[in-house]
Amino acid sequence: MIKMQEVYMTYPNGVVALNGVDVTIEQGEFVYIVGQSGAGKSTFTKMLFREEIPTKGSVVVNNTDITTLKWKEVPYFRRNIGVVYQDFRLLPKLTVYENIAFALEVIEESPKNIRKRVMSVLDQVGLKNKARFIPDELSGGEQQRVAIARAMVNHPALLIADEPTGNLDPETSWEIMRILEEINASGTTILMATHSKEIVNTVKKRVIAMEDGMIVRDEHRGEYGYEV
Amino acid sequence: MKFSTLKRHFKEGARNTWRNGWMTIASIGAVTTTLILVGVFLVLMMNLNHIANELEEDVQIKALIELTAEQSDVDEIEENINDISGIESVDFVTKEEELENLMDSMGEQGQAWGLYEQDNPLNDAFIVKAEDPLETERIADQIEEFDFIYRVNYGQEYVDTLFKFNEYARNVGLVLIIALVFTAIFLISNTIKITILARKKEIGIMKLVGATNNFIRWPFFVEGMLLGILGSIIPIAVILIGYYFLSQNMAILQQFDFVTILDFYPFALQISLIIVGIGASIGVWGSLMSVRKFLKV
């Protein structure tokens, strides 16, 4: 599913974000990425949907080598990856329904299929009754569920969540985790960058800890923490 | 592209145009101003061109034949002229006809020339027209080489000046129009750039969910086109009304067979189409130029 080999990444301003990363993640895994701010988590996740390209090394996602991916092919590559952010990134003027449908319109899905799939994914995240609301009328947890629904509506093989619970209270966080686990149970690989010790130590999964652009620990059913 | 997608792009483009409010009005204003100026230049240029063409059409070569030439020589000259490439017509005029024309053209006073009817000093001549008026000089030079040609006459200085003036006017007009068009494109692309900043997030999300660049561009394409078309309404109205009155007044002048301007119809249709075309192109170009920067990620 994901295979990084000898990946180095230096930004034009000289900041070294990744300093020799080797990792393999199998289809269907649920992986936490932990580490201090600036440890390289964001660069790591951005590389998986080719928002960044490594300065050295190879990154293969979904059998696609992103370093040799042609510019024109990037959009099609991204359709197989869902991304969820801490700040939700919903379009404020569109309704919940329209926000999710947007992801399908963009890939030129037929209007009939759009309707069917949006309703089904809204059902999955438990927001069928809020389809006509705009994001501002929803709670933070509900907005994040909309963002997850949007990421999932294409049935991507990989879901990347960058601190999805970062802006949410603990109770709502558990709700998001339950949804992510459900999605994972249906076979989707999930990669979640997080700062929440409680979540990582309670919902036990593989943990990759990063520091100074390197993987310092990689354990199955691991604990939170990134000290060597 | 699917029809439903195309429909979406048009809806989206129209909605953005409407939502951008004052920015839209500013863009339309820039297009309107440009198109009025461009339109006036176009009207001038097209008419100048028309007048020049009419005058050029009148350019003809008069090849005077030596008095000593026999009928067989005249036939030979005609054959030779017909062999020259780019000839539109060759007409033979006898000296009697020449004298008559001369007398007619001079009116009352011309009657004095009637004295010469018995002993005509003029020459028989060939009147030659070139297919392309610009070829006149070359053809005249060739005819002059023939035997039994006394002299060739085509109003050398007058023709040269006319051609030079036409070319000059055309070039100046073109440069001005191009300069105006670029100014407008620049203004529109800047106005749209400001509105795009507000839509940066939207574009980012579109890219995130796998929209192709063309998909993102389409609504901007539609928006630019709309701005251009809306911006061409006032210029077309101004120019058509102006030209209508001008052509009404010119009708009086035209009785004197002075210069003629292009007829209101089909000129009105042509100029309207050209203005809408330029407007739409300016809008589309300006809009796509401003979105370019935001597509790189």
Can you characterise this structure?
The complex is a heterodimer of chains A (228) and B (297). Chain A is built from seven helices and ten strands. The model of chain A has no long low-confidence stretch (mean pLDDT 92). Chain A has 228 residues and is an alpha/beta fold. Chain A is 32% helix and 26% strand. In chain A, a hairpin with a 5-residue loop joins strand 1 and strand 2. In chain A, the strands form two sheets. Chain A has a six-stranded mixed β-sheet, sandwiched between helices. Chain B is elongated and about 95 Å long. In chain B, 26% of the residues are buried. A four-stranded antiparallel β-sheet of chain B has the order 2-3-1-4. Chain B has two domains: 188 residues, no CATH class; 95 residues, Alpha-Beta Plaits. In chain B, helix 2 runs antiparallel to helix 6, helix 6 packs across helix 9 and helix 8 packs antiparallel against helix 9. Classes of the chains: A alpha/beta (228), B alpha+beta (297).
Would you spell out the secondary-structure blueprint of this structure?
The complex is a heterodimer of chains A (228) and B (297).
Chain A: E1 2-10, E2 16-25, E3 30-34, H1 41-48, E4 56-61, E5 64-65, H2 74-78, E6 81-85, H3 96-105, H4 111-124, H5 140-152, E7 158-162, H6 170-185, E8 189-193, H7 197-202, E9 206-211, E10 214-219
Parallel strand pairs in A: 3-8, 3-9, 6-7, 7-8
Antiparallel strand pairs in A: 1-2, 1-4, 4-5, 9-10
Helix pairs in contact in A: 3-4, 3-5, 4-5, 5-6
Chain B: H1 3-19, H2 21-58, E1 61-65, H3 71-83, E2 87-93, H4 95-110, E3 125-130, H5 136-144, E4 149-153, H6 156-208, H7 213-231, H8 233-254, H9 264-292
Antiparallel strand pairs in B: 1-3, 1-4, 2-3
Helix pairs in contact in B: 1-7, 2-6, 2-7, 2-8, 2-9, 6-9, 7-9, 8-9
